[in-house]
Amino acid sequence: MKYQVLLTERISPVGIAMLESSAKVIIAPSPSDVDLSPLVGEADALLIRSTNLNSAVMEAGRKLKVIGRHGIGLDNIDIPAATGLGIQVVNTPGANTNAVAEHALWAMMHCAKNFNRAEKALRGGKFSVAGSLPGLVQKFGYCTLELKAKSLGLIGFGRIARRLSEFARCLQMDIKAYDPLVPDEAFQALGVRRVGTIVEGITEADFVSLHVPYMKETHHLIGEKQLAQMKREAFLINTSRGGIVDEAALFKALKEKKIAGAALDVFEKEPPPADLPFFGLDNVIVTPHMAAMTDLALINMAVDVSRGILDALEGKKPEFLANPEVWEKRRR
């Protein structure tokens, strides 16, 4: 084979087959630096998922031409370091849009319908007493919310947030969004009210859903101050990145019932520790960074990242290239 592609973890067989059509594929025992360092030296391409890629591993990849990110976020790759080493970086920005938007909608519904507490109570026998179930639901305080006419505040208005707004529109929710980088036309096309500040996006919203990339500017974008500006009846949904939310401030707000609840698919430290404080709260839904782990999204991400890697190796400009200056320099 002309090329060698090193995978830090397995991807869909569809993507592996694409790569194997032009390259030898090697799958590392684990994504740790210890396991990657001995293998990356002979690799022309490196495909990673969401674990952090140490710059030392890049430097050890003396033949590396491209790094493929199986997913959207690039916060786990030192892009300037890759650029300095002449390594192209590709990702899959549209591959999991629908999957993550569906998960965010599910999270909103899960919060609104009180599933966590109600199911736990039912399994625990709380409803095994005299009375009608609907009457007991009301008596015990497990009544739920309808999303119709509720307010959804979107922080960030990229692909996923826009798809979520389409779902929310079908449910007749009132939608507002904050994103200074998106043109007015995008908001107007979906009938979403544009707001000029994060405060406007979260104040009076029944659900606040986060859809921004993680970077220095968005670290702890939602902290004690922002949480204090949310309604007590409001829920926070985070399917973006854990570092966008100050977890200590959120834990305090949830424990003191300053907001109604939260649904978290991502955490500041991943994998999270077994004693993560959120695990002890019944007004938090936690899932293990699984929003994009659907049947279709896994294939889409594998196909897109494999295509990007092969294009880079064959001297074509990849469609989703994070550092185009490297390709321009190589072309010259």
Structural commentary:
The protein is an alpha/beta fold and 332 residues long. It has two domains: 3-95 and 295-331, NAD(P)-binding Rossmann-like Domain (Rossmann fold); 97-286, 3-Layer(aba) Sandwich (Rossmann fold), CATH 3.40.50.720. The chain is built from 14 helices and twelve strands. The chain has a seven-stranded parallel β-sheet with strand order 8-7-6-9-10-11-12. Strands 2-1-3-4-5 form a five-stranded parallel β-sheet. α8 (159-170) links the parallel β6 (151-155) and β7 (174-178). α1 packs parallel to α13 (295-313) and α5 (97-112) crosses α8 (159-170). The two termini are 27 Å apart.
Features:
332 residues, alpha/beta, Rossmann fold, 2 domains, seven-stranded parallel sheet
Brief overview:
It is built from 14 helices and 12 strands. With 332 residues, it is an alpha/beta fold.
Secondary structure topology:
Elements: E1 3-7, H1 13-20, E2 23-27, H2 33-40, E3 45-48, H3 55-60, E4 66-69, H4 79-84, E5 88-90, H5 97-112, H6 115-123, H7 133-140, E6 151-155, H8 159-170, E7 174-178, H9 184-189, E8 193-194, H10 198-202, E9 207-210, H11 224-228, E10 235-238, H12 247-255, E11 261-264, E12 284-286, H13 295-313, H14 324-331
Parallel strand pairs: 1-2, 1-3, 3-4, 4-5, 6-7, 6-9, 7-8, 9-10, 10-11, 11-12
Helix pairs in contact: 1-13, 5-8
CATH class of the largest domain: Alpha Beta
Q: Supply the helix-strand structural class.
A: alpha/beta
Shape: elongated
CATH architecture type of the largest domain:
3-Layer(aba) Sandwich
Unreliable sequence segments: none
Distance between the termini: 27 Å
What count of helical segments does DSSP give? 14
CATH homologous superfamily title of the largest domain = NAD(P)-binding Rossmann-like Domain
Mean pLDDT: 96
Helix content: 25-40%
What is the third-level CATH name, the topology of the largest domain? Rossmann fold
Radius of gyration: 22 Å
What percentage of amino acids are in beta strands?
Answer: 5-15%
Reported for the largest beta sheet, the result is: 7 strands, parallel
Number of domains: 2
Read across the widest sheet, the strand sequence of neighbours is 8-7-6-9-10-11-12
